[in-house]
């Protein structure tokens, strides 16, 4: 049962990764070859059904002719599918990671046109190789006697139709991606609107209580609160920001809580200039920092430390939010914490597909890690 579950999970990952361009894959090349073969068989079966329905008509003199035709078409479909796979995987090996990140997932018409040209190149190569294989498999057969050049010209005749189909497909896909991204962003803003009033009133109450007892501390808290609000408002107005801006907002938030929690809270931020220049969706980091405080350090009497570490390696940005709080001993997350994490995962999936991830590890503390393709600010 465990072996079956692991195999099913591996194939599910291979299926999702099959439709994207990426350097690293969970499954080996064998999984991609099997998936491409399966798609070729499905296309071949669909063509056979169209022939049985009378949509595609072919004169069949005898059963032997029909058998050779079906086997030849299957061989041609397999050659095309594997050639398209080979062209895509060759580009993965040759192109740098940032360019692959712009091509997959497709987010604009330029990327759609380039991906369509890549698929067309694979189609033409597969048609050429398939024609050569058919000539070897059926020497002297009148059925497959046409030259490779003539077969290529036949494919080119369908280019206007293929272009229209591709344009309609990409148009629908890009519109759907845009709507999904807008829905995710709207959900984020709704979630922030639910969280901010509670945080706002608590902070103002703390400032008010300190005005008479400790005016310098109240002033410092008010300044940190103003910096946090200013940074947060700026992040809500943009569709893309830098990690440096996200780190500044997180540091303002932690400084504010440090005034309130005193020695119970320590924090550090480690990120080089290349990591700080990375572009990413806004407000990815803030919910992770808030969870580290709310569920990790605040319930712990002794408090603890929050560490934010960011680095760029092999064309990928890795951002970790670590705390040495309650960890695995923390009570079940309150409503809103799970929603925030689900929202982050949804936004990463809509923008980067399977090329980005959010992972949580619980032990003596909690380690939340975001990985996504590295794209520096111009």
Brief overview, please?
65% of the residues lie in helices and 11% in strands. The protein has helices spanning 2-18, 29-52, 63-94, 97-103, 109-137, 148-157, 159-213, 215-236, 243-261, 273-276, 286-297, 337-352, and strands spanning 241-242, 265-271, 279-280, 304-313, 316-323, 357-362, 366-373.
Topology, pairings included?
Blueprint: H1 2-18, H2 29-52, H3 63-94, H4 97-103, H5 109-137, H6 148-157, H7 159-213, H8 215-236, E1 241-242, H9 243-261, E2 265-271, H10 273-276, E3 279-280, H11 286-297, E4 304-313, E5 316-323, H12 337-352, E6 357-362, E7 366-373
Parallel strand pairs: 2-4
Antiparallel strand pairs: 1-3, 4-5, 5-7, 6-7
Helix pairs in contact: 2-3, 3-5, 5-6, 7-8, 7-12, 8-9
Helical run tally: 12
Element string (H = helix, E = strand): HHHHHHHHEHEHEHEEHEE
Largest sheet: 5 strands, mixed
Q: Spans of 5+ residues with little confidence (pLDDT < 50)?
A: none
End-to-end separation in angstroms reads: 50 Å
Number of beta strands:
7
């Amino acid at each position: 049962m465990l072996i079956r579950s692991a195999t099913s999970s591996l194939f599910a990952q291979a299926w999702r990764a099959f439709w994207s361009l990426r350097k690293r894959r969970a499954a080996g090349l064998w999984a991609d070859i099997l998936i491409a073969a399966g798609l070729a068989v499905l296309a071949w079966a669909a063509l056979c059904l169209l022939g049985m329905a009378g949509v595609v008509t072919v004169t069949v003199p005898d059963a032997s002719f029909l058998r050779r035709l079906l086997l030849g078409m299957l061989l041609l479909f397999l050659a095309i599918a594997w050639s398209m796979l080979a062209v895509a995987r060759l580009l993965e090996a040759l192109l740098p990671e940032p360019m692959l990140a712009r091509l997959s997932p497709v987010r604009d018409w330029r990327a759609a046109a380039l991906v369509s040209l890549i698929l067309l190149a694979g189609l033409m190569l597969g048609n050429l190789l398939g024609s050569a294989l058919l000539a070897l498999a059926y020497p002297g057969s009148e059925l497959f006697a046409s030259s490779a050049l003539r077969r290529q010209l036949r494919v080119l005749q369908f280019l206007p139709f293929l272009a229209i189909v591709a344009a309609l497909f990409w148009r629908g896909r890009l519109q759907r991606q845009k709507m999904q991204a807008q829905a995710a962003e709207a959900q984020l803003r709704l979630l922030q609107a639910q969280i901010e009033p509670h945080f706002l009133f608590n902070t103002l109450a703390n400032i008010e209580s300190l005005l008479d007892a400790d005016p310098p501390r109240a002033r410092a808290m008010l300044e940190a609160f103003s910096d946090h609000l200013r940074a947060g408002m700026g992040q809500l107005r943009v569709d893309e920001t830098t990690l440096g801006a996200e780190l500044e907002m997180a540091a303002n938030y932690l400084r504010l809580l440090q005034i309130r929690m005193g020695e119970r809270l320590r924090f550090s931020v480690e990120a080089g200039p290349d990591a700080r220049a990375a572009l990413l969706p806004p407000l990815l980091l803030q919910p992770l920092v808030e969870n580290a405080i709310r569920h990790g350090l605040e319930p712990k009497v002794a408090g603890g430390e929050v560490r934010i570490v960011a680095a760029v390696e092999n064309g990928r940005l890795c951002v970790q939010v670590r705390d040495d709080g309650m960890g695995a001993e923390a009570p079940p997350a309150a409503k809103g914490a799970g929603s925030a994490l689900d929202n982050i995962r949804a936004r990463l999936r809509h923008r980067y597909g399977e090329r980005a991830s959010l992972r949580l590890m619980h032990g003596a503390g909690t380690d939340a890690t975001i990985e996504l393709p590295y794209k520096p600010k111009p």
